[in-house]
Amino acid sequence: MAKLIGGLGTSHVPSIAAAIDKGLAGTDAWKPFFDGYVPAKEWIARAKPDIAVVIFNDHGNSFFLDRVPTFAVGCAEEYRPVDEGWGPRPIPPFEGAADFSWHLIDTLVDNRFDPMICQEIEVDHGLQVPMELFFGRPEAWPVRVVPIFVNVIQYPIPLPSRCYEMGRVLRQAIESWPGDERVVVIGTGGLSHQLQGSRAGFVNPEADRAFLKDIATDPDRLAAMSRERYVEMFGSEGAELMMWLVMRGAMDRDVVVRHTHYFVPASMTGAGMILMENAATAEAADPEAQAA
Ligand code: DHB
Ligand code: FE
To answer: Which of 28, 120, 248, 261 has CA 20 to 30 A from 225's CA?
Structure first.
């Protein structure tokens, strides 16, 4: 049985990667943002996961509007970072965990989720940026990755409750996997932002801060919310937040929040992160941790 060692949620704003590429991470404008990720990076370094399951949306780079799967799972040996138009980025390719990916796909189909199966696909900032935030800039990534793509762009997008249910199946796949890998699940996107239309530039820090609390303590409420409510509260692109529910659905009801951070705005976005462990296994590791 593989072990779920933690759940992470983070924004995946592309200008975060640009700030690292241009050496701006230590500047007055960016330092407070990056400082907020240090405890999570330290936790990762201690926890030493073997596999990162990353839930994100492609942004018209590998899928365009003419053909978009609602859910897709990568089962490749390697995922190259896609060039989004500014040239190749100085980051290594991502090694896949193809064996676990196939098991996840089997488990999803057994549970009436029928994802698109991607044996070859490139990954955009939705996966690149969270990996850089949590793993830094290594010569080679210290984990193998399993990308889960969720369509939050071309309507109709899936229900938040469906994302949450998918997380439960992901947990089942982790626990029924014969290997002993340590797995982290990373939900990405959000928080509030709208990049287009009459509400372009919209952010909602109050709703973002409430989300960062509720994702730990009241995920059922977030899963029960309609898609329209996500768009109203978080903006059209802020609806990406429903992908955090895949991560949360993979976790126990009771979690321990190790760290959370919020910074607004990063580019056009309320940028947030959370690091949680299941309370049942985390308490033993750290008796001082506070149950959510
Ligand atoms: C921005 C945020 C995103 O999540 C994204 O995918 C693209 C751009 C932004 O704030 O610039
Ligand atoms: Fe995005």
So the answer is: 261
